[in-house]
Design goal:
The protein has 459 residues and is of the alpha+beta class. It folds into three domains: 155 residues, 2-Layer Sandwich (Beta-Lactamase), CATH 3.30.450.20; 94 residues, Helix Hairpins (Orthogonal Bundle), CATH 1.10.287; 156 residues, Histidine kinase-like ATPase, C-terminal domain (Heat Shock Protein 90, 2-Layer Sandwich), CATH 3.30.565. It is 57% helix and 17% strand. The strands form three sheets. The protein has a five-stranded antiparallel beta sheet, with helices on both faces. Helix 1 runs antiparallel to helix 4 and helix 5 runs antiparallel to helix 6. About 1% of the residues have low confidence.
Length: 459
């Protein structure tokens, strides 16, 4: 990054210097040409009259010397035959023919100009010829100027030196500031890289100090959030694996004991049927557990299979299954469901799974002669579905854990009723995937009220 900044500064300074030098050179040449042309036009009438009245070379030389001193250039007067009739350099070229492209242009009535390299003085010179033509006449003679551009070269050299020094200073300052900034930037990045490498090696207890509010600070904060999430995920995964192992070990151990007994001991037919019944029951428990585990892992896939469906349809399908089950257990089943519920963009299977699990638990844990009630209510921002029962209830200290995976309030009773401890956990995760909430109110021996909501924004 520092090298990039240095190259950028150097490029900008070089480009700026090139533009400034060209502009300065063009300006100086323009001013010099304007001065020479103004001087030539001032002298032209006088020289022209001198040619017509018989020029005095001595006088013309003096005039050339005076003007040459004023404009800092060599001045030469030419007649129509290109013969020098006045020279500011002590009449050096008097009587000689001076032929040049600039003079030819002037004799044609146009101002001739060029910049050349003088082999004599070894420097750049500006040569300019002003015509003496009067009106439309041509070939009346010319005034020739030769001005050294050495002052311009010296000025450009000074400016060039200034830009070189300015460039060196800017690059030195940029290198210093770039090094400080790069260290400030690369330090946290290196720390983040090292922490990420340690996390990749399995050490998830990483935390980066957030020392700024810029993008690096935001990156460090997001890294810490990611690390916390990974640690929590690892804890949940470890606990999940342990819970699954525990849940699988119990029925497998029972099946193993029953099979060992059948294999090594002589039994009466009634005893064999009893053992086979135990094996069948434990196998069924395993099937239920595996199905619930599959539902848990596929909850997002199932919940994402959304269709727009009137909510009365899946509610009625669940009621058609649960009401006969409640009747067989001699339970009263009350419903309070509006006839025209709005349509929701949801997965019917996922919604029915949530409602069925809650109603199924209410039926399981309510004694014969009791009752349960399903209520659906349209609120301001959501739709609230409530299931109330007169079952055994849940102890207050157990309520915070009721939606955790594999959690059972009464382990023995839950196993007898065929529960896996995953139903409510599945309900919670499906409801939260739809942006809703789920909860419970309960008192031991008085019954429970389970409820969940769906936001009307998905209706």
């Amino acid at each position: 990054m520092t090298v990039t900044y240095l190259l950028l500064v150097a490029a900008v300074m070089m480009l700026t210097g090139f533009i400034v030098m060209n502009e300065l050179e063009d300006y100086h040449l323009a001013v010099k040409q304007e001065n020479l042309e103004r001087t030539g036009k001032l002298l032209a009438p006088f020289i022209s009259s001198q040619i017509h009245t018989g020029a005095d070379p001595y006088r013309l030389n003096n005039v050339a010397v005076d003007f040459a001193r004023q404009i800092n250039a060599r001045v030469i007067f030419l007649d129509e035959g290109r013969i020098v009739i006045g020279d500011s350099r002590d009449g050096e070229l008097l009587g000689q023919v001076l032929s040049s492209p600039e003079v030819e242009e002037a004799l044609q009535g146009r101002t001739g100009r060029s910049v050349r390299h003088s082999r004599l003085t070894r420097q750049q010179v500006l040569q300019m010829a002003i015509p003496l033509a009067n009106g439309q006449k041509k070939g009346q003679g010319a005034i020739f100027f030769s001005a050294s551009l050495n002052p311009l070269d010296e000025t450009l050299a000074a400016v060039r030196g200034f830009f070189v020094l300015a460039t060196l200073f800017a690059m030195t300052l940029t290198a210093g500031l770039g090094a400080v900034f790069a260290h400030h930037l690369s330090g946290p990045v290196k720390e983040l890289t090292a922490a990420a490498q340690r996390m990749a090696a399995g050490k998830l207890d990483q935390k980066i100090p957030v020392t700024s509010r810029d993008e690096i600070g935001e990156l460090a904060a997001q890294f810490n959030i990611m690390a916390d999430s990974l640690r929590e995920t690892k804890k949940r995964l470890t606990r999940f694996v342990a819970d699954v192992s525990h849940e699988l070990r119990t029925p497998l151990a029972s099946i193993h004991v029953c099979l060992q007994s059948l294999q090594h001991y002589e039994m009466k037919p009634e005893e064999q049927r009893e053992f086979l019944q135990d094996i069948n029951q434990e196998t069924q428990r395993l099937i239920y557990l595996v199905e619930d585990l599959l539902d848990l892992t596929r909850r997002e896939e199932v919940a994402d299979k959304r269709v727009i469906i009137p909510l009365n349809l899946p509610i009625n399908e669940v009621l058609n299954v649960t009401i006969p089950r409640a009747a067989r257990k001699e339970l009263k089943f009350f419903t309070q469901v509006p006839e025209n519920l709005p349509s929701f963009n949801i997965s019917p299977d996922a919604f029915k799974r949530v409602l069925f699990n809650i109603l199924d638990n209410a039926i399981k844990f309510t004694q014969s002669g009791g009752w349960l009630k399903l209520s659906v209510e349209l609120c301001e921002k959501d739709l609230r579905i409530t299931v109330q029962d007169t079952g055994c209830g849940i102890p207050q200290e157990e309520l915070p854990f009721i939606f955790e995976r594999f959690y059972r309030v009464d382990q023995a009773r839950s196993r007898d009723l065929g529960g896996t401890g995953l139903g409510l956990a599945i309900c919670k995760e499906i409801v939260e995937l739809y942006g809703g909430t789920i909860g419970v109110e309960s008192r031991e021996a008085e019954g429970s009220i389970f409820y969940f909501t769906l936001p009307l924004s998905s209706a």
